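Give me the fold.
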Amino acid sequence: MKLLLLLTACALPLLSQSSYPPDMPESRSVVYKSIDGTDLRLYIFEPEGHRMSDRTPAVVFFFGGGWNGGSPTQFREHSKYLASRGMVAIAADYRVKSRHGVDIYQCVEDAKAAMRWVRSHAAELGIDPGRIAAAGGSAGGHLAAATAMLPGHDDIGGDQSVSPVPDALALFNPATVMAPAERHGLRADGASAIMRERSGAPLESISPYHHVKADPPPTIIFHGQADTTVPFVTAEMFCEKLKEIGGRCELEGYEGKTHGFFNFGRDREAYADTVRKMDQFFVSLGWLTGEPAI
């Protein structure tokens, strides 16, 4: 079976429900990176009564938008919910093509820099540096997976002594197969011609699937089975590869659902179900306790 991963369309389902610049008064923002006159911020949602002395689990969300647009507000409701459940939730901004003229590899650099900043500032954030998840949707799912898998593409000005690798992954229709790949008779052709031009680096070098390594973080993936933007089979291929090397990967497939189905305000039932299962995933890791509140 031959498949084409149409990543050029990743932005379309997401941009309509995301605003930029972000307006999230429930959060506080900090600058994690300044480059070319741009301050990149993290929007931090904290549990009620959270203190610096706490060692709370955390999650960093990366928005989707085809590495071309989008906004951290995409995961505002996810962040508010997880903060209400006792996690520190962080919505990360990063450079994109339309606003900053960058290529995909520079988006990866920013994502890694964000993860390093959070881990290196864990004490002042009141979080546990050994319980930091990365999460994201579509292109943001790619960036979350990239922080876990990809070698190189590191921020030159960042502290390379701090690991950007997350301790868990929660991925929503992520782009994980960015270069040609075949598995069990299924073939993904990788990105389109436009994405090859915009990658800024060899496609295989920015493809999480091609860099799956030993001891991967426990992972949950939410993916629509009718997704024609990032085909469901690519999630199957990625998840199978993680399990074959002994990793934990749970793939939640949604029959009839297309790209971006999980977003708040698009499909109330799907949003609630994916958030509930994400909550249960964190409970299974011992990061949260009790029953989901959604």
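Residues 104-120 form the longest helix (17 residues).
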